[in-house]
Amino acid sequence: MVEVSRPEEKARPALTDRFIEFAEGSLSYEQLSAVLDLLPLDLVFVDKDDVIRYFGGSCGFYPHSKNDLGMNLFSIHMPKSVPKVKAIVDDLRSGRKDKHAFWFEVRGRFVYIQYLAVRNKAGEYLGVLEILQDITDLRALQGKKKEL
Question: Which residues form the PAC domain (predicted)?
Answer without folding.
Answer: 88-147
